[in-house]
Amino acid sequence: DGGITQSPKYLFRKEGQNVTLSCEQNLNHDAMYWYRQDPGQGLRLIYYSQIVNDFQKGDIAEGYSVSREKKESFPLTVTSAQKNPTAFYLCASSRRPTNEKLFFGSGTQLSVL
Amino acid sequence: AQSVTQLGSHVSVSEGALVLLRCNYSSSVPPYLFWYVQYPNQGLQLLLKYTTGATLVKGINGFEAEFKKSETSFHLTKPSAHMSDAAEYFCAVSEPTNAGKSTFGDGTTLTVKP
Is residue B84 less than 8 Å (CB to CB) from chain A? Predict the structure, then answer.
């Protein structure tokens, strides 16, 4: 079945550590996105990529980095510069950047030790 | 610039009762509007969307929403609540050129009482 796979489901970060969240899609979608979700709040856009080897900052990109070397993969690195990383992270994709439907992965819960 | 306001962070209804979740938006261009549902520890699933055309849109699981430009609203309704409808619901607005850059509301948690 086609879909978006995020791993791991739960992740713990130590002080000063960088961690990478995986997002893989087999939908052949051009565009991919990373959102952060905090309790009681909506989703906020971290980074997005409309095509391979290209990505743009979203509303809250500070302390995060991404790469888009392959169409199916869009990993997110939470760096030590992100001082409040505890959140639920959601990866999404759409067939084209202008396509209105987003498909979401099941998320990664990141917590700080 | 765009924004979304969901009125009521928690809504509780009895099984079989009408579900009404409220969403108001602001947008500087004609908006695309969405409702998503999220079950615990899962991603979001699209319920329905309005892009252009008919202002009453029907979605999955018996939900529908009406785009009212004069009221800048996009309220979500379902005539009869089912226990399986208990979840968190998000309204979102985007510009037509990039739906992935949607702005989401803070969400409404729907509880269904037996």
Answer: no
Q: What is the pLDDT of residues B33-90, one digit of tens each?
A: 999 999 988 889 999 999 888 899 999 999 999 999 999 999 999 999 999 999 999 9
Q: Which residues on chain A are in Cβ contact (under 8 Å) with B107?
A: 40-42
**CB distance from B73 to chain A under 8 Å?**
no
The beta-strand segments (E) located in B8-86 are: 10-14, 19-27, 32-38, 44-50, 56-58, 64-68, 73-78
CB contact under 8 A, B100 and A90: no
Q: Which residues contact B46 (CB under 8 A, 6 or more apart)?
A: A101, A102, B34, B35, B36, B59
Tally of CA atoms within 13 A in the half-sphere of B88 that contains its CB: 19
Are A107 and B105 in contact (CB < 8 Å)? no
Return the closest-CA partner of residue B109 out of B14, B39, B24, B34: B39
